[in-house]
TrEMBL record:
Coiled-coil residue windows: 249-276
Annotated organism of origin: Tepidiforma thermophila (strain KCTC 52669 / CGMCC 1.13589 / G233)
Stated name of the protein: Uncharacterized protein
Record flagged with keyword Coiled coil: yes
Keywords per UniProt: Coiled coil
């Protein structure tokens, strides 16, 4: 079994040690062990300290766009997502030392660089808040005695200093995560996830011990990885074993190769179908989710209509169509939606004006009484919210209305129809209903923009 360790030096003949800038392809290995903190550490060493690194192909790594003679930091980091995806799709294993997510500024060509940009997550989750939270502690209680990593955590309990924990109250974690060890108050600090046909295992951060303890830790991790991969941890069979005849074995080996090829093809098709399924099913979240899930569904809905999302991750949502910029505010509530999204939108637009920039258009997507069936949401928007949007000429749509537009788009609406929907959203004022946005009602001449 071939194991690659990134930014977590482990002395063992079965392990190749590199950092994210110098490593070969992740998917050239059976398992990957990685400390995400090594990503921002090595980036800082290049940008702030001028430290020199050499990519696996021999090119120097610099904070510039990549070329035939220079490997850019952004180029080296971005490629790791596809490599990890392929490793998992092949049934591989990724072991992660749990750290809180953090952004690394200053990478040319990669503004959204964070510690987990390279790691796919189960559907509906990400490796950041609210699912993975920052925290510190030393308490380790084994929750799954049968998991191979439990032996590692038990033996090296004194080396553990966990720096992140999973929120077991999140439905997605309960659906996808299998706790291995718990910290104080029973919060999961180690967990196992199935992702894209492979396994992603988070374990607590370990101290930087050297010498014999580090060698023993490396061997324990190798043994655990082999057990999780179903590989015998004992010595490999000698070279002459394959020459010993066993009646019927040669035919079965041929059948095994054929079945393995069929399984790989089926797994690839399953991953493609699951990706299409998740992309379509995400639109249902527009009707009932809140928080990041609602934001993700709203972004997907606007993109389905042809809008370009121009805001970066973590920033308030902004979209664009035909060079027209619009600020978008989202609100999903179990009760009636009141004026807060309008207030946030107005402050954002006023800030643009104070900065001397043109005022963008305003769009509010509101989802009131989100726990009710869509047909039973009468009065989901407060009257002051509706009146404020009319007065300031902000477009206001319910999540139900936007969902109807998305259904029309997914049902085969052509580009001319989508362009009409986008224009009506950008030029509308006050509460907009589906018939008007679909062009089924006479359109009124647009008035002037927002008043202040």
């Amino acid at each position: 079994m071939r194991i690659l360790s990134i930014s977590f030096p482990l002395p063992n003949v079965a392990i190749d040690n590199y950092n994210p800038l110098t490593a070969p392809n992740y998917n050239d290995y059976d398992a990957l062990i990685i400390d995400p903190a090594g990503i921002d550490r090595v980036v800082r060493e290049v940008i702030e300290e001028g430290k020199e690194f050499e990519a696996f192909d021999g090119r120097p790594v610099l904070n510039v766009p990549g070329s035939a003679t220079v490997a850019g930091i952004a180029e080296q980091l971005r490629r790791r997502l596809e490599e990890t995806r392929r490793l998992l799709e092949a049934g591989g294993l990724v072991v992660v030392l749990a750290r809180p997510d953090a952004f690394q500024a200053g990478v040319v060509g990669f503004e959204g660089c964070d510690r987990y940009h390279w790691l796919p997550a189960p559907g509906g989750m990400s490796w950041s808040t609210p699912w993975l939270r920052a925290g510190e502690g030393k308490t380790v209680r084994i929750a799954d005695e049968h998991h191979p990593m439990s032996a590692v955590l038990r033996e090296f309990r004194s080396e553990v200093g966990w720096r992140a924990w999973f929120d077991e109250r999140q439905a997605e974690f309960r659906r996808h995560g299998r706790p291995i060890a718990l910290g104080g108050s029973g919060v999961p600090i180690a967990a196992d996830f199935e992702v894209l046909g492979g396994r992603v295992v988070f374990i607590p951060a370990m101290s930087e011990a050297y010498g014999t303890p580090r060698t023993n830790l490396a061997q324990a991790l190798v043994d655990a990885c082999r057990q999780m991969a179903g590989v015998d941890t004992g010595a490999e069979a000698p070279y002459w074993v394959r020459s010993v005849a066993v009646p019927g074995l040669e035919q079965v080996e041929a059948e095994l190769e054929e079945a393995a090829a069929a399984e790989a093809a089926a797994r690839e098709r399953l991953a493609a179908v699951r990706e299409r399924h998740d992309a379509l099913a995400r639109h249902r979240g527009l009707l009932w989710k809140d928080g990041p899930g609602y934001g993700e569904a709203a972004r997907a809905a606007l993109q389905a209509l042809g809008f370009a999302v121009v805001s970066r991750p973590g920033e308030p949502l902004a979209v664009q169509s035909e060079d027209v910029l619009a600020f978008v505010e989202l609100e999903s509530a179990s009760g009636q939606v009141v004026e807060w999204p309008y207030i946030r939108l107005q402050r954002r637009i006023e800030a643009e004006l104070l900065a001397g920039r043109p005022a963008p258009r305003g769009l509010i997507i509101a989802n009131g009484y989100r726990d009710r069936e869509p047909e039973q949401r009468s009065g989901e928007l407060s009257e002051p919210l509706v009146r404020a949007c009319e007065n300031y000429r902000y477009a206001l749509v319910t999540a139900r209305t936007l969902f109807e537009l998305v259904r029309r788009a997914l049902g085969g609406a052509d580009e001319a129809a989508l362009l009409g929907m986008r224009r009506r959203l950008l030029n509308g004022a006050g509460l907009l209903e589906a018939p008007k946005l679909l062009g089924l009602e006479d359109e009124e001449a647009p008035e002037t923009g927002p008043i202040f």
